[in-house]
Write a structure and sequence with these properties.
heterodimer; A: alpha/beta; four-stranded antiparallel beta sheet; 7 helices; globular; B: alpha+beta; ten-stranded mixed beta sheet; about 55% helix
């Protein structure tokens, strides 16, 4: 495990949802520290709270109680607008279903997060090209998602996740929709992002082979880390 | 350059059939709106074409009630009045086509040609008209419709003045100004008057007077009415424009109905657009969730929706107005001018209607996007992403 100071520090996190009037506690007093530069896998059965935990760390949601410090920011107290800014500057997302905008080319998809940073068109293009080069898809920059394979789409999604040089990359089942070969390519790429570019990666997965690539694997069950 | 509007425009092309149908639906609403507004403006334009230096005098109660013919001599004596003529509304019909409407009026012919000098009639036809008590002149538009030419005989069927009224077509007139309807028929007042029983003779519907100074129109009108205030039958004198508008007053309910219908059409258009936009937002919920996840603030997502609506509205406006021109001006307009020239002497789309149509297409599209944009704005990122599964 890395000896860096924690980039994620959760204390006594509790997250309760309501189904009608019935409260459902998904995370129950969970505490967690993730050092900067680590590559961690989060495993657990369905409904264990993995995605909820990932959403809290990524600033997509707020805890019901407890303290959540991520990249030096107390994200539990932020407004929606501040959380959006926080995500834009600190978090890169990789989704299971890639979630590229079908009406945009690979390059335009990668440029999307940069629209929020007031960069010139030329600068956006340059950075998007760099990110696509990192994932090995520079030559596919003008292809639309429908013209790419699943593995290529996920690589474009990774380029989109890293284009604004985020502090943390959160990946929710990044290989869930891919065949083994494509999955390995994606995992190799994530490994490279962690080792070569020193990105902190937090990955939710059901796939033991994917979890093996992480430096730390945490198991979550019934809202508690085991 | 990639920007919000460009993304919005591309989103519209995702479902080309739906977008095309929406644009066409909204365009049809725009065409209907333009058509109705043009009907309304054409009616008021007809009033606007009135001569500025002409005033009209009618019975104080209503123009359907007659006045004594001798009033015209007294009006001719009023300072500022250059000439005056009188007429009755005959209400005649073509017995072969009773449903066909055209204006038929019996005038004092010599003074009529003086007061309505924008009416163009060849000198020999004018001479023939004045010389023949059964002579009639018809506008060139009506002549085409009825298939009449100079020298033809035409029998008019009277409704206000029952019976058959044979007429000799002695002239076909045109006009130098739009103030003269080219689909009317004029003949001699004396022909009608002399055929009436004594108790109905020497009654007239209105008096048209030419004045020397349009600026003095209200004062001259007041002087005329004051003159008859002490008589049994009082008068109302007004500008020709006001007279035309008072005719339109009879159909004010219809005009109001058209006005309301044009607004309803626009609301239908708004609902069509709102439905399409709402469907688009629903379908793209997960994409909006992704955009929110990567840092787009809620307002940006709402702007995507508004941008999409704006593009749809603009395209619908352009298509609708582009189609309106040939349909309204070249098709319907020509037809109405030819066949209903008395009501629509100049059926053209007012430039203001184009501006209004375009503006309303945009404004209504934006209005239609308010609810979907608000829903997109309120979208919870985690809820939106949960729809990924």
């Amino acid at each position: 495990m890395s000896t860096e100071s924690p980039i994620v520090s959760l204390k006594e996190i509790r997250k309760t949802f309501f189904r009608g009037k019935e409260p459902i506690t998904v995370l129950d007093g969970l505490s967690l520290e993730i050092p900067a530069g680590s590559f961690e896998a989060l495993m657990g059965p369905s409904g264990s709270g993995k995605s909820t935990l990932l959403n809290l760390i990524a600033g997509l949601d707020r805890p019901t109680s407890g303290s959540a410090m991520v990249a030096g920011a107390n994200i539990g107290k932020m407004s929606d607008g501040d959380l959006a800014k926080f995500r834009s500057g600190n978090i890169g997302f990789i989704f299971q279903a890639y979630n590229l905008l079908p009406v945009l080319t690979a390059q335009e998809n990668v440029e999307l997060p940069l629209l929020l940073h007031g960069l010139s068109s030329a600068e956006r293009k340059k950075r998007a090209q760099t990110a696509l080069r990192v994932v090995g898809l520079e030559d596919r920059s003008h292809h639309y998602p429908r013209q790419l394979s699943g593995g290529q789409e996920q690589r474009v999604a990774i380029a989109r996740a890293i284009v604004n040089d985020p502090t943390i990359i959160v990946a929710d089942e990044p290989t869930g929709d891919l065949d083994r070969k494509s999955a390995d390519e994606i995992l190799n790429l994530m490994d490279r992002l962690n080792k070569e570019f020193k990105k902190t990666i937090l990955m939710v997965t059901h796939d033991p082979a994917a979890a093996e690539r992480a430096t730390v694997t945490r198991k979550l069950d019934k809202g508690q880390l085991r | 350059m990639m920007n919000f509007i460009r993304i919005s425009a591309r989103n519209l092309l995702r479902n080309k059939l739906r977008t095309t149908l929406t644009v066409l639906g909204a365009s049809v609403a725009i065409i209907a709106f333009v058509m109705l507004r043009t009907v309304l403006s054409a009616w008021s334009t007809a009033a606007d074409f009135a001569a500025k230096d002409r005033i009209a005098t009618r019975h104080k109660v209503s123009f359907v009630i007659t006045m004594p013919k001798n009033y015209v001599d007294q009006i001719r004596a009023v300072p500022g009045v250059k000439s005056a003529t009188y007429a009755i509304w005959f209400g005649g019909k073509n017995p072969k086509k009773p449903e066909q409407f055209f204006a038929t009026m019996a005038f004092d012919a010599p003074s009529m040609l003086e007061v309505f000098d924008e009416l163009v009639l060849a000198p020999d036809q004018q001479q023939a008209f004045l010389a023949d008590k059964q002579g009639a002149i018809i506008g060139d538009v009506l002549a085409r419709q009825l298939g009449l030419k100079v020298g033809d005989r035409f029998t008019l069927q009277g409704s206000i003045y029952p019976g058959d009224w044979p007429l000799n077509i002695t002239g076909i007139y045109t006009a130098t100004k739009k103030s003269i309807d080219r689909s009317s028929m004029f003949f001699h007042y004396s022909y009608v008057n002399d055929s009436l029983p004594p108790d109905r003779q020497d009654q007239i519907g209105w008096i048209a007077s030419r004045i020397d100074d349009p600026g003095r129109g209200p004062a001259i009108s007041a002087a005329i009415d004051q003159m008859f205030d002490v008589k049994d039958i009082q008068t109302t004198t007004m500008s020709e424009r006001a007279m035309n508008l008072s005719f339109m007053g009879m159909i004010s309910s219809l005009l109001k109905a058209l006005d309301v219908i044009s607004i309803i059409i626009l609301f239908i258009m708004m609902m069509i657009l709102g439905n399409t936009i709402a469907m688009g937002v629903r379908e793209r919920t997960r994409e909006y969730g992704v955009l929110r996840a990567i840092g787009f603030p809620p307002a940006s997502i709402a702007w995507f929706v508004v941008g999409e609506a704006a593009v749809t509205g603009i395209v619908s406006g352009i298509v609708g107005l582009a189609l309106s021109f040939p349909i309204v001006e070249l098709g319907l307009g020509r037809l109405l001018e030819e066949n209903m020239g008395a009501w629509f002497p100049y059926f053209r789309i007012d430039p203001k209607t184009y501006v209004m149509g375009m503006g309303l297409a945009l404004v209504l599209a934006l209005a239609a996007s308010i609810v979907p944009a608000r829903n997109a704005f309120r979208l919870q990122v985690t809820d939106a992403l949960r729809r990924l599964a």
